[in-house]
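Write out this protein's structure.
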Amino acid sequence: MKKQCLLIICCLVIGFVQAQELFVEGGKSITSFAFKDVLSNELDNLRPTNHTYLDLGYRGDLFGEQVKFIGGLGLHTYGSRGSDANATNFFEWETTYVSLQAGVDIEIIKANRFSFHVRATVAPEFLMQGTRVLNNQVLDINGLEDFDTPIIFLRGAASFEYKVSDGITTFLQYRYGQGTQLEKSASGGELTYFSQDIGLGLMFNLKMNTNESEGTPQ
């Protein structure tokens, strides 16, 4: 796993150096958990909660201008809440992960300054901090067996882009994702994350700036 993460980090660094576009994106997430114990019994009564996310990344040509590579870093918060009517318990989780993202961006339709894109990304994510609330008692879950392994998040997205100027593009994006643990916990339980994101972003065209500087007389 460490070798894979180092490879992704190297690709991200090389990509940033050779990037044609840089972007920043932030928005709201509706997230939930699904938990199965060693006997595959699911924890019932879990409900989604609202959170936020922030992504920084780059985009560059992969196969022409229609199919591009994207990569970057993200800070994502996930959570879920529920209750046990039989035991009259209330519980809630909130976790924050840092992610290393890589994927493809495909331009489907372009009309004047507008364009429609689809994206697919994969991201290993690592727990930065997390808490569990049980009947108003707060517990730090860092290092607990159900959360001590990284997760792999797969996401699909659709975005509408509007070219404000030659150097700046704004976009609105919706994406859905599912994250699974790389390894089961020591107890044999399985924890799965679900996330729906709606975000706004800005894209900065570095290729245009490079071309302008190359054409500037000395």
